[in-house]
Amino acid sequence: MDFVKPAEVLQSMVEAGESKARMNRVQMLIRGFLAGAILAFATTLAYTAVSQTSVGLAGALIFPAGFVIIILLGLELVTGSFALIPLAVMKRKVSVTDMLSNYFWVIAGHVIGCLFYALLYGLTLTKMGTDMSNPLIQTLIQTSEAKTLGYQHLGGAGIALVIIKAILCNWMVTLGAVMAMTSTSTLGKIAAMWLPITIFFAQGFEHAVVNMFVIPAGMMLGADVSIGDWWLWNQIPVLAGNFIGGAIFTGFGLYAAHRWGSPAKLSSTLATIPGGRSRLTSPDTASKLGTRS
User: Fold this and answer.
1) Angle CA(46)–CA(51)–CA(55) in degrees, nearest 5?
2) Model-level pTM?
3) CA–centroid distance for 41 within its chain
4) By CB neighbour count within 10 A (0-12 exposed, 13-18 middle, 19+ buried), where does 234 fall?
5) Which ranges of the chain have pLDDT less than 70?
6) How high is the pLDDT of residue 265?
């Protein structure tokens, strides 16, 4: 069987967080760029599916393809790291400075990648600026305005609402990243990741990286949204909400569920064994945590 037990998943989360925080800045930037562009590809694919079928759920069912590509290729998605690196900080594997450095460079990569794809996709939709009849143009414009001016209209309540929707979003997105660790097979990882990502996208929650594409893409196509509107009424509060949802409800939540009050401690390393599985280095610790022999 390729199922990985929760104790091993928790160890993998800590080690993944440490690895991400120790990555060099160039890798963070490049992997963030690629992940941002790929997620933007998936977003336009989802919008295309909805446009062609008039079924909102069609987009949610197909959007996870982008997330799967990102995880399987080991690229950097800051929303997933919101659940993993704080655990490594808590276990004193890396510092808060290391965590913030990762977030800064990966987010910078996301913004560049999303803007790059938005520019190319906008030129494609408008046939190099000569045709504004494609229905997806209005979809992007309306979505861009709804994600900024819609919250601005509500004032303080709008900020609270966007943060809540961002928390709910990344609770599911980070579960997708963690669920990928519950299987050692590619098909198992894909199936496990697909479920929570579909849940978030189908309900219209707020994802920071998706918004790094959708909002500026709408702006390029004529949305009445300023850069200030983008960052004040969406991007900054969504990043904050995504961090809360990932770090507290997935990262610390799963840690508390499996380790709170338990005398057993996480092993510092994992050893690879035949068959593509992994287990805790110490046999005694492995026995306590219920890992496979």
Assistant:
1) 80
2) 0.88
3) 14
4) buried
5) 1, 261-293
6) 56
